[in-house]
Task: structure prediction
Amino acid sequence: MLSIPKYDYGLPGSGLLIWHIDESIIQSNLSANKVNLNKERRGVDLEEGDGAQDLGYDAGILGTQINIGWYFDPWFAGNEGFFT
Result:
């Protein structure tokens, strides 16, 4: 599939996605294809709107699917899923 009319159709929520790009990590790890190997220091990382850094981690008590993203990850007005 090369093109679809609504690219965001499969996202679990709506809002602003803020990406943290660390070019020094990308430069030093790109040739080995290990840009996001270290979960604590990723080259490309989503700043999650719920305040929890759970993408790529085991979800534990929240269920097995939360580690692939969920409704409260995007930043949007009225996001009540923020965890401090």
Observations:
- The chain has a mean pLDDT of 80.
- Residues 19-68 form one domain.
